[in-house]
Write a structure and sequence with these properties.
The complex is a heterodimer of chains A (about 220) and B (about 250).
Chain A: H1 2-48, H2 52-66, H3 70-80, H4 90-116, H5 119-127, H6 132-162, H7 174-185, H8 188-217
Chain B: E1 2-11, E2 14-24, E3 29-33, H1 40-47, E4 55-60, E5 63-67, H2 75-82, E6 85-88, H3 100-111, H4 116-129, H5 145-157, E7 163-167, H6 175-190, E8 194-198, H7 202-208, E9 211-216, E10 219-224, H8 226-231, H9 236-248
Parallel strand pairs in B: 3-8, 3-9, 6-7, 7-8
Antiparallel strand pairs in B: 1-2, 1-4, 4-5, 9-10
The complex binds adenosine-5'-triphosphate and magnesium ion.
């Protein structure tokens, strides 16, 4: 009798949880990661630029974000900024927080990847008459992209899980939904395991995509 | 015509080139020899402006640039001078994410703004010239060292440079692959390409050079036709260098 009830609770809550995942967790992850990658690229280029104030600003940003907890950053954006008259809705506030995070950690990955490309590649591009920007775009970044795919995929998968922090700033994403259901049915073990299962499904899909991306880049070898 | 006047280059406090003067007529082949650390690579890299010379003047074709210790050259001037010469590197430095064909198209498309079909046709022609028409679609890692270096030569020629620079083009190659690369360079010499070649292959130098310079300690110790350098060198230093090579069996 009891087991039957548990199964009911499981099946009844699966759809609402999946919906919360698809309606909030997935878009939050995708939007933050896409914007974060752009920010990461700009930050990496700024840190490598010959113009030192730009490099300094970028370095300062990375220092702040990496040196403080993501949870605290989210609280500052959502609960703190209103004191300055800056009111941001929960979802965009979460997007801003996660974007800044991906931007900072991603920029370190991209910067390391760019620096890892042998100097001879720059020189070969220069010797053809390419400008620094052309060399970067045509020769260096495509190779750096290949190097950064595995670590960036890791960041992406981490982000999927980190979006659960958005629950603390009132976004009704997957984890928050789990909390709500738990409060109603009082089956924390069951519901939170179910929440975990759905995160696992999302991350597994991503891992498969990552492998395909890596295979695409494996068409050439650098050795 | 290529002209180099009072060219110097220092890294920090160490001066590596100490006043190089050179003139090279169109179609001439100049071979640069000298002991390790004498500044051969630095000289070539300065002409391609991969290193910015500390002072002196470089004229290649239509581009002329005067370097001064107290001022950085303008980027546009550097690009203009650099585009007058093509560089063949000891370690090839092919673009690994491009096929052989794409490697030879890259400069044409990105720098010259040549339309793709035209660039492709020319790249295929250049690959055929270095004997690699059938490997156009191979990635660098699928090619032997000798093949990679021949792609490197085709790539350097793809931007129609006034001057081709070779920095020990065969030093990284297994002995049996050296010949195929030297053959290509010899053919270019016969075609009347203007070239500067750093090499330790003395037999090849003797055949291909119109003139040879011996560099030591950042200065030109002796300059002359191969018959002079190998037959009756005027400088004691040249004799020493050649006899050292003779001992090592590379003449
Ligand atoms: N980027 C650099 N920074 C500092 N010193 C350098 C740099 N490049 C070259 N040198 C120094 O300049 C000198 C000449 O180097 P270069 O590579 O031109 O010699 P080379 O004649 O080509 O020697 P090799 O036959 O070994 O290739 C060497 O003492 C080298 O250590
Ligand atoms: Mg050298």
């Amino acid at each position: 009798m009891n087991e039957q009830t548990n199964l009911d609770i499981f099946t009844d809550s699966f759809l609402p949880l999946l919906q919360a995942g698809i309606a909030f967790t997935v878009p939050l992850t995708l939007i933050s990661f896409a914007l974060g990658l752009v920010l990461a690229m700009l930050t990496a280029l700024a840190r490598l630029s010959e113009f030192s104030p730009l490099a300094w600003v970028a370095g300062f940003y990375v220092w702040i974000i990496r040196g403080t907890p993501l949870l605290v950053q989210l609280f500052i954006i959502f609960y703190g900024l209103p004191s300055l008259g800056i009111l941001i809705d929960a979802f965009p506030a979460a997007v801003i927080g996660f974007t800044l995070s991906v931007g900072a950690y991603g920029s370190e990955i991209i910067r390391a990847a760019i620096v890892s490309i042998p100097k001879g590649q720059w020189e070969a591009a220069y010797s053809l008459g390419e400008t620094r920007l052309q060399a970067l775009r045509r020769i260096i970044l495509p190779q750096a992209a290949r190097v950064s795919v595995p670590p960036l995929s890791n960041s992406f998968i981490s982000l999927v899980k980190d979006t659960s922090l958005a629950a603390t700033v009132t976004v009704t994403e997957l984890f928050q939904k789990g909390q709500q259901i738990t409060a109603a049915v009082y089956e924390p073990l069951l519901i939170y395991c179910e929440v975990a299962l759905i995160y696992l499904i999302f991350c597994t899909v991503l891992a498969v995509l990552q492998r395909q991306l890596e295979r695409y880049f494996d068409r050439y070898s650098t050795v | 015509m290529i002209e180099v006047r009072e060219l110097t280059k220092s890294f920090g406090g160490t001066s590596v080139l100490r006043g190089i003067d050179l003139t090279l007529e169109q179609g001439q082949v100049l071979v640069v020899i000298g002991p390790s650390g004498s500044g051969k690579s630095t000289l070539l890299r300065c002409l391609n402006v991969l290193e910015v010379p500390t002072s002196g003047t470089v004229v290649i074709g239509k581009a002329r640039l005067e370097f001064r210790a107290d001022a950085k050259p303008r980027k546009a001037d550097v690009l203009a001078l650099r585009r007058q010469s093509g560089m063949v590197f000891q370690a090839y430095h092919l673009f690994p994410h491009f096929t052989a064909l794409q490697n030879v198209m890259e400069g044409q498309i990105t720098v010259r703004r040549t339309p793709k079909t035209e660039a492709r046709a020319k790249a295929l022609q250049l690959l055929a010239k270095v004997g690699l028409a059938d490997r156009a679609d191979a990635y660098p890692h699928q090619l032997s060292g000798g093949q990679q270096q021949r792609v490197g030569i085709a790539r350097a020629m793809s931007i129609d440079p006034e001057l081709l620079l070779f920095d020990e083009p065969t030093s990284a190659l297994d002995p049996e692959l050296v010949r195929e690369v030297l053959k290509v360079i010899r053919e270019l010499a016969e075609e009347g390409r203007t070239m500067m070649i750093v090499t330790h292959e003395m037999k090849f130098a003797r055949e291909v050079a119109d003139r040879i310079i011996l560099l030591d300690g950042g200065v030109i110790v002796e300059e002359g036709p191969p018959e002079q350098i190998f037959g009756q060198p005027r400088e004691e230093r040249t004799r020493q260098f050649l006899s050292l090579l003779l001992e090592q069996g590379s003449v």
